[in-house]
Amino acid sequence: MSTSPVRGQIPRFIAVQARSIVRPALLVVVHTIALLGGCLSFAAESKAIDAPLRSAQPAANLAPTNSLSSTNPGVSAAKLGTNLLAAATTDRMESLDDKHLLAIGDRLSFRILEDEDDPRPLFVTDSGDLEVPYIGRFQATGKSCKQLAHELKAELEKEYYYHATVIVAVDAMTKSRGKVYLVGPVRAPGPQDIPSDEVLTLSKAILRAGGFSDFADKHNVKVTRKGAGGMDQKFTRDVAEILEKGRTDSDLPLESGDLIYVPERLVRF
């Protein structure tokens, strides 16, 4: 018994139509599963990244913070860097020489670190001044490099600099910081140079003059010094106590222009 051609084609037609419907549906399901898997993987990774950050927050909160650092960390970091730089440059100024007192004829080097220029040579003039950039004439004699640098820093920061790091150093010292003058009964009266590398005191000046002569009044040696405004300052020292008893605490450091007068004893025997 033969089968009808129409009957054989019907099941085949149904199968073809079923495949055309099922295949796209399967593809949609596969893509949907893959998309869901990717989302779940991304959520897991985000949670793993956030976990250390959340665990680190309590430790970070233990450190005290101000409103500036919490609202603008960049400003806080810049402020911290500025403070560290200021501290470092201030330390450089604190290491400057504070022993040698500047004198007429000293040759110095002067530098402002913020300018990033080479040091400039300066000379202490006969009037005891320096010609300082931006400032002009500035008194220098009798000051150490450290003291002078701090005074110049203060002047520069008044008008010209927000922060100035001033470095002053002595390149060459003059051989003499001036003269003192001895009169009266000493072995070698007259002018004496003040050495640039030491402090000349009254007792040293007497010894360099050869000491007292026979009729000197060692107990009432007088020193006259030009003071501010043209007013003279007068000092009296018992040099005998300084030399014979070691009373160096009462010795007098001399300055350029001092006049030392040694009187004679009223009674000679």
Question: What is the CA–CA distance across the termini?
Answer: 179 Å
Portion in beta strands: 15-25%
**Low-pLDDT regions:** 48-85
* CATH T-level topology of one domain: wza like fold
- Beta-strand segment tally: 10
Judging by the overall fold, what is the CATH architecture of one domain?
2-Layer Sandwich
CATH superfamily of one domain: wza like domain
Average pLDDT over all residues: 77
Spatial shape? elongated
The H-and-E topology, N to C, reads as HHHEEEEHEEEHEEHE
Main pleated sheet:
5 strands, mixed
Alpha-beta content class: alpha+beta
Can you identify the CATH class of one domain? Alpha Beta
* C-alpha Rg (nearest Å): 45 Å
Number of helices, where a helix is a run of at least 4 consecutive DSSP H or I residues: 6
Helix content: 40-55%
List the strand order in the largest sheet: 7-6-10-8-9
Descriptive account of the structure:
Among the domains are: 78-172, wza like domain (wza like fold, 2-Layer Sandwich); 176-261, Outer membrane lipoprotein wza fold like. A 5-stranded mixed sheet has the order 7-6-10-8-9, covered by helices on one side. It is built from 6 helices and 10 strands, in the order αααββββαβββαββαβ. It has helices spanning 5-61, 67-71, 73-94, 145-159, 202-208, 239-245, and strands at residues 107-112, 120-123, 129-132, 136-139, 166-172, 176-183, 190-195, 221-226, 232-237, 259-261. It is of the alpha+beta class and 269 residues long.
